[in-house]
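[Meeting: bench + compute handoff]

Bench side (C.D.) handed over the final construct sequence. Compute side (W.E.) agreed to return the predicted structure before the next meeting so the bench team could plan truncations. Sequence as handed over:
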Amino acid sequence: MTSTIVFDPLVPWPLLMMVAVIATIGVMLALVRGLRGWALRGLAGLVLLAALSGPSFQQEDRAPLSDIVLMLEDESASQRLGDRSEQTGSAADTLAAQIEARPNTELRRITVADGQGDVGTELMNSLSEALAEEPRARVAGIVALTDGRVHDADLPVDLPAPFHVLLSGEETDWDRRLSVVGAPAFAIIGEPVVLTLRIDDLGAAPAGAEFADLDISIDGDEPQSFRVPIGQDLELPVTLPHGGRNVIRFSLPDAEGELTDRNNSALIQINGVRDRLRVLLVSGEPHAGGRTWRNLLKSDSSVDLVHFTILRPPEKQDGVPVSELSLIAFPTRELFMEKIEDFDLIIFDRYKRRGILPGLYLENIANYVRNGGAVLVSAGPDFASADSLFRTPLGTVLPANPSARVLEEPYLPLVSDLGNRHPVTTGLPQNGDWGRWLRQIDVTATSGNVVMTGIDDRPLLILDRVEKGRVALLASDHAWLWNRGYEGGGPQLELLRRLAHWMMGEPELEEEALTASAEGQTMRIERRTLTEDVPPLTITGPDGTVTEMPFSPAAPGRFEAMFTGPEIGLYRLENGDQVSVIGLGPAAPREFVETIANADVLEPTVGALRGGIIRLEEGLPSIRNVRAGRPAAGRGWIGFTPRAAYETRDVRQTPILPAWLVLLLAASLITAAWLREGRS
């Protein structure tokens, strides 16, 4: 039980002070005027002022409360390196027993796990949440058992008690780290892009190591090895082999005695893009849709277009001098013989044999296709004639034979069953709800995939692969009717755009493909195919673990699967003859960027309340009581500040000046002053 005097004034304190000033002035005037009762008048005023201040005698029944100590145990990924986990666990159990053995003390053990994603160790956030659940007046001390690699150390936390760090790890620890200093998200296919790497030896590294072996692989292929210096930025030129995602893996062999090999490898993913798409458009003769292809290709700023148009065939002899028809001769030999490999796509729009392109040039174009080039033929009536391109050396790579019939009647172009699964034609806007075309060349498909049909289910659009190259045949020259809005028009621009990009090998339009995208540790795997079903998916993890799982149908020609990887690293995906790789997790996990135990980032927080940082390898410190503001740590010991907190169970107040006593004293003093002054 404790006792004290408290005041509960009947009037506000400022008003009470004014009354006191007025009373003091009155007493001083009485003294100046020589009134003999001035002292009695002053005592009467003092009694009244004391009564107005409301003094009471307060008694409290208090129950003491125990002190609280917070102990944070770091169980993040970096704490599992070496023997840190065992070292920390043993120290935590021993320290907990010492704290719980202290009188009037409670212990709160808080586990600090890895944060969501790649945020690292959020020890200060865990501490802030723990403090929010405890009465601050009872917290006597805070102890963190950690390796010091805390990634939210700058989080402002108002600590009510000394903060101590017991540091795990050994002073002799060392580690070799590979880091990617700079890498672009995009790069041009076929052109070298410079990546900046760095290899560092951290901690107490052995002397004499100046070089390390670096292995580099792209998309899981056989790695190439290089001898590179340690402790220097290394600029490495890499050429991407294909468009789309390229997964590049860098790795170092394990070094004897290093702390971990988790930071000996790095994954980066770079999207390969084409610099400029070079297209050669060969127009045989002017016609109503002659500008369709030109307008489409010129509207794309990434396309360099060379347009070769035949306006005056050799058989046209009208006597006009050649010097008056053109300024320079068109470089046909340079285009079709010397520079043909520079083009990504060649388009023949209603072209026929007219003696301008010799058979040798067309044979060279056929070889260009076999070596990886692309040719698209937009056929008009000339394709069914004796001068057809089919009857040239180029015909050996075309996917259909003309029957010499030209069908002149309205019909509705339709996507075939196979076309519903092909990326070029699947899901076209307003599929089937579009205008009719008026002409079709009758052809018989000999190879490839018929993705659109016309009159009586005849082939209209045929796509084919010839050795390394691609060929497409559109058996009509009326696609421009959609562009003009005939009978409502149709998706002419979208169809021709997809067709051109498929010809140029854009990854998103591959009909047979296995792709994956990742969000965190979960990957979405997509399989595109022209078949109606696919075999199970095989996933090989970074540690060599093989997992098989089925695909689920998502759309015609498209199957999907979801997989959550148990660890970060490179995963290899296989389905039939399709192989892909994907990297899960960051290029350099934050927990393994700095692996050597060090508490420098926590020093400002520890020093704010004069706590201490002690290595566990030096032994577990003893515990002392210290007063607030005094040093809370020393050689081999840490201190807690006893809080002497209590719980008030009962409060009793007794007025010191009851009303009757105030009235009696005031009346007596005033009467005595009046009598004394009356006698005089």
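W.E. noted at the follow-up: The radius of gyration is 44 Å. C.D. will use this when planning the next construct.
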